[in-house]
Amino acid sequence: MSAEPLTLLLNVLAIAVVCFVLHNIAVSAFVTLLSTRFLKLQVKSRKITLWFLATLPWFSAFSTAAYFVYAANGLSPFESASSMDHWHHIDSFSWLSWHGAVTACALGFLAYVISSRLLKLRAHQHEIKSLMALSRKLDNNTFEIDSSDAAAFTAGFISPKCFVTKGMREQISETEYHIVMQHELAHANKRDPFKKWLFALLAAFFIPNIKQRLVLHMTLAMEQDADNAVVSNTTSSLDIAGTLVKVARLNATGSTLKNTDMVANFGADVLEQRVYFLLGQLSLKPVNHLLMMLLAIAAFFLCLTSVDSIHHFIETFTSH
Amino acid sequence: MKLGDLEKLLLHYLWQHGCSDVKTVFAHFENTRGGSLNTYQSTLERLYKKGLLSRHKEGHAFHYKARVERHELIGQLIKSVTTDFVGEDDGSSLIAAFSSMSSEFNVEQLDKLESLIEQQKLKLKQQG
């Protein structure tokens, strides 16, 4: 019997939510156990691993949901559909059941996270525009802010802009200023503010502790990548490390840029890792891409085969 | 903090000229920017409500004055842009800063890192 399109869609959404939660828990356990080992991965590999982990629950949820849609239309590639995938009432859905409650909560949470992030982004864009209007334009992408505090940062979603304060320029040498600007331009060229926002959006669906760890690792990887981009024939990694520590000292005496303890610890840890990285004191290894691919496929099959068992397990505690 | 184009323009004017009423402001911008007296009145009102202007009544008209100095507003904006999503949330900043925007670095830790860099430089010098 083929299901009504809306009923099928709602059941598939419930399946996707179950898969998402399952993989969210799996990724959280993985990050809890192995997050310190991420630091031993090469920067590019670490970034790929982090994107992989953040998107894995979405990938498994969408691929399993897509499979069930095809299977419900008689297009299952497996001989016996019940041997691989099963959802014992794909043709009926009630909002007054745990499926309904879970689906409604998931949709509500999704709408809340996306809308709140978009609203903050809009306010952030306005602030950047205001800051640009109050700054001196050095070139198309670079602005000098008339402030005595030492700060340099890149911000902006579609067209990132680099900002540097007058205080920063006055308190560091020509060479150090060149390093700071090249670092910021590397962030702008890689569109890091947008990538950070997107990654943080994906990470927002994990519990706060895991979310912080994921974002922390991605921030460190992005900073190290930008540091790497500055290294050239004329600029050594030692000069960059020296500039980093000098700027950190200037920040420590500044008054404008004060944050919470969480950010302070986070900043200090990131700084230490960046300096060790630039001094070549970390032996970093690449990640096995084949292993990651196999993990993604295994995750998909695990979801496909276990989703109905989980369904029945939940129904030992709740009614339909 | 959101600031429109006209709001920024009026703030600049008040930073330069000090205290002004709406008619003086309008007279200054009438030829160069255009717009009606009401537009300038409502913009000054908005800036006042945002806490960026203070005002007092002289006769029938309000006289507006910038409540925050230029550098204070810039400081607020830098803080807001760099801490958006950071302090209140999860470290997921939209900015990518050269050094983490923190004033809480441990001085001992910075000393340790600095001496490590010096050692490495010395080592390279001796090798080269």
TrEMBL record, chain B:
Q: Which residues cross the membrane?
A: none
GO terms for MF: DNA binding
List the keywords (alphabetical): DNA-binding, Transcription, Transcription regulation
DNA-binding recorded as keyword: yes
* Biological processes, Gene Ontology terms: negative regulation of DNA-templated transcription
**InterPro entries associated with the record:** BlaI_family, WH-like_DNA-bd_sf, WH_DNA-bd_sf
Name the family: Belongs to the BlaI transcriptional regulatory family.
- Give the protein name, as stated in the record: TrmB family transcriptional regulator
